[in-house]
Each structure stands twice: as structure tokens, then as C-alpha cells.
């Protein structure tokens, strides 16, 4: 199955603390919708500064999970916001949403595992 | 060792706090710049670990404020940033940061930095 996290690396990093990984995943899933909604607002308003800040925040948080695709997709939006050139922003936003959908599923499985 | 962790990313603060606490470090967490400054004033941590890119540029402002306040100016500040700018380290050190770590932050690396920073103090004390 095509995954958006480097699961082997992630599980290895938390091999001694699997419960902590579950807690972190749960926090990410709680905060993710707020971060995505801030990005959406930046895209819809064509507000480059807000987009840069919101995408930067999501990129930082996703980076904790070896989620390279999400990090790259957020970085693309962050750089667009930083440069002020929003050409292609809708496609980049769609790509981020697609990747985040997968990431949420993968982290959701880890967060659920914590409570078993 | 008492450390103030200031970052708007709750994932990162929980990760760092959990791993540092396991090593006996007392942690205080702040999720915005104002909270960070107030916690630094109130709790007098040994080190402040500060994300300088909290929303609205407030992290950088907090660093400046911490270095200007008589009560907090002597507390070492380790800066965290997700910046991809190559000159970021120099610019934050110019503002008074003593050390600079790029995100994602490895808790073990942060712990090593904290131990290095505090070793002379602890030997003296």
C-alpha cells in the first residue's frame, strides 16, 4: 500500500515509546483541521502572508511524523505564500488535502492503537 | 534542570516534554509568545527553548523581549526553527540566542544541547 509516512523509520524512532507516538498522533489529528482551515482561508482569500504562516505551521507539525509528502506539499504552499506568487495555488492546495487525507488515516491507525 | 518549551506546535511540545521529563528535566510549556514571556518571568527556567516562528512573528519578538528584560536576559535561549533559510542561524544568534536547532527536533539532540549549556553552571553550583 502507498503510504505518506515513512512508517518503518517512524516506528523505529518510537520503538521504545510506542504510547508516546499514539499520543502525538492524537494531538496532530486534533489540531490538523484547525491548521488546514487556516491554509484554506489563506488560499481562498489569496492572502500570501497568512498562507505562508499557516502552511509553515502544518509543515513543522507534519515533520514530526516522517511525513515527507505532507511536508513537501505544505512547503510548496509556504514558498508560494512567501514569494507572493500564488500561481498554481489551487492545485497545490488540492495536493496538500489529498496527502493530508492519507496522513490522517495513517496517524489515525496509530492513535487508535494507543487505546487498545 | 528546568526548561521552558515555547512552541505553538502541540505535537512537538508534547514530544519534547515527555522525553525530557523521562530524563529528569522539569518542563514548562507555552504555546504562544506572550505565555512564553510570562512563564519565563514567573518560573525562572534554566533554559528557554523557543520557536522563533510562532504565528505573526511573535517568536522573534519574544526573543528580543526576553533579552531586553533584566529578569530574563541572562537565561540561555535555544532557538527552534523550521526555516529553510541558510542565514537563519546567524540572524537568531544576533538577537541573543545561544544555540539554534532546526525542526524536526530530535529530543536526544536537544537534551545533549541542554546538558552542554548547563554543565558549567551545575559544576559551579
Entry summary:
Chain A is mainly alpha-helical and 116 residues long.
Question: What descriptors fit this protein?
Answer:
A: 116 residues, mainly alpha, elongated, B: 125 residues, alpha/beta, five-stranded parallel beta sheet, 5 helices, 5 strands
For the secondary structure, the number of strands of chain A is: 0
Shape, per Cα inertia axes of chain B: globular
Report Rg of chain A.
15 Å
Helices and strands of chain B, in N-to-C order?
EHEHEHEHEH
**Number of helices in the DSSP assignment of chain A:** 5
What separation lies between the terminal Cα atoms of chain B? 12 Å
**SS strand fraction of chain A:** under 5%
Q: What structural category do the secondary elements of chain A indicate? A: mainly alpha
- Helix and strand pattern of chain A: HHHHH
- Shape category of chain A: elongated
How much is the radius of gyration of chain B in Å? 13 Å
Strand order of the largest sheet of chain B: 2-1-3-4-5
Mean pLDDT of chain A: 92
Describe this structure in words.
The complex is a heterodimer of chains A (about 120) and B (about 120). By secondary structure, chain A is mostly helical. Chain A has one domain (about 15-115). Chain A has helices at about 5-15, 20-45, 50-60, 70-85, 90-115. In chain A, helix 3 packs antiparallel against helix 4. Chain A is elongated and about 45 Å long. The model of chain A has no long low-confidence stretch (mean pLDDT about 90). Chain B is about 50% helix and about 20% strand. Chain B contains five helices and five strands. Chain B has a five-stranded parallel beta sheet, sandwiched between helices. With about 120 residues, chain B is α/β, with parallel strands linked by helices. Chain B is globular. The interface between A and B is medium-sized, with 17 and 16 residues.
Amino acid at each position: 500500500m502507498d503510504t505518506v509516512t515513512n512508517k518503518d523509520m517512524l516506528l523505529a524512532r518510537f520503538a521504545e515509546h510506542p504510547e508516546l507516538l499514539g499520543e502525538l498522533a492524537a494531538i496532530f489529528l486534533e489540531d490538523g483541521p484547525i491548521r488546514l482551515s487556516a491554509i484554506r482561508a489563506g488560499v481562498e482569500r489569496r492572502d500570501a502572508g497568512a498562507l505562508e504562516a499557516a502552511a509553515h505551521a502544518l509543515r513543522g507539525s507534519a515533520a514530526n511524523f516522517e511525513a515527507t509528502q505532507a511536508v513537501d506539499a505544505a512547503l510548496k504552499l509556504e514558498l508560494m505564500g512567501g514569494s507572493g506568487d500564488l500561481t498554481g495555488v489551487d492545485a497545490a492546495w488540492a495536493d496538500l488535502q489529498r496527502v493530508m487525507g492519507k496522513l490522517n488515516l495513517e496517524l489515525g491507525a496509530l492513535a487508535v492503537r494507543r487505546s487498545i | 534542570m528546568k526548561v521552558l518549551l515555547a512552541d505553538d506546535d502541540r505535537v512537538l511540545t508534547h514530544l519534547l516534554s515527555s522525553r525530557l521529563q523521562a530524563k529528569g528535566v522539569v518542563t514548562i510549556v507555552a504555546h504562544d509568545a506572550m505565555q512564553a514571556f510570562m512563564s519565563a518571568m514567573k518560573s525562572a527556567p534554566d533554559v528557554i527553548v523557543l520557536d522563533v516562528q510562532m504565528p505573526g512573528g511573535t517568536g522573534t519578538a519574544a526573543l528580543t523581549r526576553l533579552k531586553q528584560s533584566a529578569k530574563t536576559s541572562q537565561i540561555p535561549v535555544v532557538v527552534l526553527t523550521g526555516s529553510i533559510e541558510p542565514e537563519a542561524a546567524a540572524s537568531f544568534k544576533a538577537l541573543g540566542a545561544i544555540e539554534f536547532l532546526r525542526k524536526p527536533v530530535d529530543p536526544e539532540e536537544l537534551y545533549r544541547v541542554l546538558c552542554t549549556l548547563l554543565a558549567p553552571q551545575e559544576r559551579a553550583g
